[in-house]
Specification:
The chain is of the alpha/beta class. It contains 15 helices and 15 strands. It has 2 domains: 6-233 and 369-496, Rossmann fold (3-Layer(aba) Sandwich), CATH 3.40.50; 242-362, no CATH class. The protein is 35% helix and 18% strand. The strands form 3 sheets. Strands 1, 2, 3, 4, 5, 8, 9, 10, 11, 14 and 15 form an 11-stranded mixed sheet that branches. The protein has a two-stranded antiparallel ribbon with strand order 6-7. The longest helix is centred in the middle third of the chain and has 22 residues, at 269-290.
Length: 498
């Protein structure tokens, strides 16, 4: 009998101050009534690898109910199924943020249609165009994309219920309930299940590995794209020196890309990164731990090495106590040229109005993607999918309350232990991790650190696969990385359901 798989994927734009966290309670959009109606079904056809692939789309709003049966929220979703293939592996995708809609993976990475960007991921001129996505996973599995409450078209019925869903715990619980409902309504409980996420979506995915297990739903695999499981690895807070060491290899990769590293390292990126890793977890980490006990000679020696790897001046490094905060790095690397580099993708660059400022006015890599993707989702949902609404599609923030981390109060949010526990409960589960070399939002070395500190049993470590891509946070905006990701994930899915 043919094996059937189910895959859940998510993306986020985790950042300095969570996206969507600025909207106050009075500004959070709600929907007074959410009808429980059948989804809108459409027939489609695309060309994939020179062959026609027929599929259907089902677009709808999944109601979430309270224990008394009252509808508290509606989750917008789009499902794609290949015709005439029987039951197939299934991929359900969600975004992160917190506060990001699901347009990014939907129309950028794994859906059947893709917004056309320049091949290097930079923004083309408007009007923007859609095309068949040669990187889609639809030939490997059916797809479902869902917007968590307060993102995309998804809404709570009241501000009070929005508070319930807009937080670390409530978000995981609501997406877990969506998954249960989708499996029930579409009779997919007999499908092997894959859970995945991108950035804050990986935080959610790891949390869901435990939440679903408690509901009796086991996982065959977890896919983590641009991972952030332990927030201590990325919080530049006083007294937390960990990010300074863990961001260093990505700083070096970025400086290498912009030809700012010492010429001796410019020929071989991977070779340089191997040396930077050793320095970051060795001599540099020791220097950070010593703090004010470092002698002036030791400080200057560390500054020389940091400068060779990062392109930062000795004056800058010493003035910043050998600690390079991300926003300062983005501004400083090419300050003399009045150019700032991107945070989500440090290959991309832009300009801002104050060359002397400590930090950049905006992220040029985020600015490059927001207009094309937002335009595409609004047009595509209404024209191709037939979903008619006057509602705003919240792409990056604007629809959520300040995110509630009260369950992690006085500590850093961390779902890595939940993922470790899921491995212990289900030794058949596999994990795939995708990292971008130029991702300054969720650096690859921080992900490596997290997985090496999870306490995984030796037999479970063999079930973890990591891949690197020569792109940023959303590696799929770079066409070569998009196609590499498709191949890597396709092989992972096939291997995990054997």
């Amino acid at each position: 009998m043919r094996k059937i798989g189910l895959l859940f994927v998510g993306l986020t734009m985790y950042g300095q101050g969570q996206l969507g966290s600025t909207a106050g309670p009075s500004s959070v959009p709600t929907q007074a009534m959410i009808p429980d109606v059948a989804p809108i079904v459409k027939n489609h056809e695309m060309m994939l690898n020179g062959k026609a692939l027929k599929y259907t789309s089902a677009t709808g709003m999944m109601p979430l109910r309270s224990s008394t049966g009252e509808i508290e929220a509606g989750l917008f979703y789009v499902a794609y199924n290949v015709e005439g293939a029987g039951k197939r592996p299934l991929c359900v995708a969600f975004n992160g943020g917190p506060g990001a809609g699901t347009l990014w993976l939907h129309l950028g990475a794994i859906g059947p249609r893709r917004i056309r960007m320049n091949d290097d991921g930079t923004m083309p001129a408007a009007p923007y165009k859609m095309e068949d996505n040669q990187g889609t996973w639809l030939d490997k599995c059916d797809l479902v994309f869902v917007d968590p409450v307060g993102t995309g078209f998804s809404r709570a019925t009241k501000v009070e219920t929005a508070r319930k869903f807009n937080g670390f715990t409530g978000d995981i619980d609501s997406v877990a309930e969506f998954i249960r409902l989708y499996l029930a309504r579409n009779k997919r409980f007999d499908s092997p299940l894959f859970l995945a996420g991108e950035s804050y979506g990986t935080t959610r995915a790891a949390g869901l590995s435990g939440a679903l297990a408690s509901r009796g739903i086991a996982l065959n695999g977890v896919i983590l794209i641009s991972s952030i499981l332990n927030f201590q690895t990325a919080r530049f807070t006083k007294g937390n020196d960990l990010p300074f060491a863990l961001f260093l290899p990505t700083y070096a990769a970025t400086a290498w890309y912009h030809k700012k590293v010492d010429p001796a390292y410019q020929k071989d990126l991977k070779g340089m990164l191997g040396e930077v890793r050793k320095f970051a977890e060795g001599e540099y980490s020791v220097a950070l731990m010593k703090g004010d006990r470092l002698t002036q000679a030791e400080r200057e020696a560390i500054a020389v090495k940091l400068g060779k790897f990062t392109g930062m001046s000795q004056t800058f490094l010493l003035q910043n106590d050998l600690r390079i905060e991300i926003q300062r790095f983005i501004k400083e690397l090419r300050r003399s040229e009045r150019i700032v580099v991107g945070r989500l993708d440090s290959r991309l660059t832009g300009t801002d109005g104050d060359a002397g400022a400590a930090t950049a006015e905006f992220d040029p890599s985020a600015a490059a993607i927001l207009p094309p993707y937002t335009h595409a989702m609004n047009q595509y949902a209404r024209q191709d999918l037939g979903y008619q609404t006057d509602a705003i599609y919240f792409a990056l923030g604007g629809g959520t309350l300040p995110w509630d981390y009260s369950s992690a109060q006085n500590q850093f949010a961390d779902t890595s232990n939940t993922l470790r526990s899921a491995f212990d409960r289900n030794p058949f589960m596999k994990v795939f991790v995708a990292n971008g070399y130029y991702d300054l939002a969720t650096p690859f070395f921080a992900t490596e650190y997290t997985f090496s500190h999870m306490g995984l049993a030796a037999k479970h470590r063999a079930n973890v696969t990591m891949k690197e891509y020569e792109s940023g946070h959303m590696m799929y905006i770079h066409v070569p990385s998009l196609l590499k990701l498709k191949g890597d994930v396709g092989a992972f899915i096939e291997g995990a359901v054997q």
